[in-house]
Design brief:
Strand content: 15-25%
Radius of gyration: 19 Å
Distance between the termini: 78 Å
Structural class: alpha+beta
Shape: globular
Number of helices: 5
Helix content: 40-55%
CATH topology: Nuclear Transport Factor 2, Chain: A
Number of strands: 5
Order of helices and strands: HHHEEHEEEH
Largest sheet: 5 strands, antiparallel
Length: 185
Amino acid sequence: MKARVTGAMLLLVATGAKAGDVLAPVQEIMGATRQFWSEQPGSNTDIFTEDRLARLYSKDFAEKYRAAAKYPAYEGGRSPFSYDPITNVQDGCSIEDLTIATESESEGVSDVAVRFNNLKCLGAAPEYAALNELHFQVRDEEGRTVIDDVLHKSSDGSMRSMKAELVALEKSGREGQRAADTDAE
């Protein structure tokens, strides 16, 4: 009986630790993003460093990012995005009113909702007061808690997948390169 109670307690502790781990990769990404948009940016604000791709993202996400990054948005750049893919803007303000919370869990995927405002400094209009919302899809992969996708919630309530966008960026870049190669011949 004592062994069963101890086992049950260990299971509860492990489950609690697991749930806490779900937030860790999201908190790191949001910390780097917050630092990037602060008035005093830090040196480690790139959310897609090779280290972070290997530690914080699923293999599938990292592969899609690396494939798309072969075609940077800007000459001499390294990102396939022409905007900040977390804040969803090119120009913004310091991140305020940040909340990070697990919303749900289904079939091994935790939905971690992130809400913040990064437009308040642009004025008092209602669109500058609205919260930006995105959802990190976090799952276990080979014993690590990783981000498998990031979904941006638009004003109409629809969700846009960052992984799907990476696939589209890679395809567009590949087709653009093919067209450039053909023109050069």
